[in-house]
Amino acid sequence: MWWLYQTLYLLALLGAGPVLLARRGRHYLTTLAGRLGAFDGEPVRRGLWIHAVSVGETGVATTLARALPAALPLVVTTITPTGQERARAALGGRAAVAYHPFDLAFAVRRFLGRFEPGALVLCEGDLWPLALREARRRGLPVAVVNGRISDRAYPRLARFRPLVARLLLERIDRFGVQTEGDRERLIALGVAPERVVVTGNLKFEAPEPPARPELEARVAELAAGRPLLVAGSTMPGEEGAVLDAFAAAGGGERALLVVAPRHPERFDEVWDLVRRRFPGAVRRSSSPLAAPPVLLLDTLGELAALYRQAQGAFVGGTLVATGGHNPIEAARFGVPVAAGPSMENFREIAEAFDGADAWRRARDAAGLGRLLRDWLDEPAAAAALGRRGADLVAAHRGALGRTLALLEPLLARLEAPSGGPRA
After folding, report:
1. Active-site residue 214, yes or no?
2. Which residues form the domain of 254?
3. What's the pTM?
């Protein structure tokens, strides 16, 4: 069975390879060695392996890592280049940062042989059958933190319930999940109730990003006294709608719009669109002198700090059907937040913001344009909305303490002699 799985996995990699190279070749070619289990730094050993997928999960990993004992060795893995950049920026001095190996026996064993971790923590539940099998064979206790079962994933998992239980869920010792609904879904998939604990959402616990005085001063200079609007983590097909909304709200005469695409490989593509629509637009990576209508944020690691000085924010990935992104980074600063209808991947957060009237929803570009215009026309009302968002974020604290309690037995094992292999 495992040979069949690896054969199918390898065929899928080979099939997807040309597409990935065409779209993101300059990112993926340079990471191939890491994805095959190599590591060019000094590996930490006998510590905790924390796996995240991309930027959102890396934020969870960062929150957790900063709360763990400073003497505990850590290795943090990601799947995406953007997640890797975020992990290196946030944890470069605290943890070894590497790519998760391809789910092929030689790559996984090479990675495990290099780091020899004593336990594995999976952020939100990115589960790879062979990696879990190898971890189990080496006696590693495994836990999921901030776990969730999305509306999209659950029907597929339920359809293959026996296989999912055998290859994935049975190999995990403890699950810490975001909501009672996530817990019920795991139990329905065959996980014993005593192995699942509702810990809450660690994304409410993310540490405040450090101030970036140089960045903030530069953007304030570009704004030239105008309010700052930020469209963060935008996705393909969405930037045009954001630019339409900005134009409807008055455009560059009334505000400076910052557009921050989610994926770095799209910077040039989005820049072509932005400068066609707003010829006076500039890129962050250049040295603009004039007060532009739009700033393309084509640098990494700066978006979270920009929310600090924004007068309004749009959550990207929500006007197109991609499942949404995290609104907490902006809301924590008291910034009024707008989002589109697609928030399936952040169900609990969206319900909390809806219930507290702590943000505004827009169905399309026209609706977003009306919201932006209203915020510019009535800054006091916009500020009140932002305060409700900040209050909501503060009220949901506590997930970190519950997660650390869940992991206490696993962390205790790292201090004790390791057990023998398990079948």
Report:
1. no
2. 213-395
3. 0.76
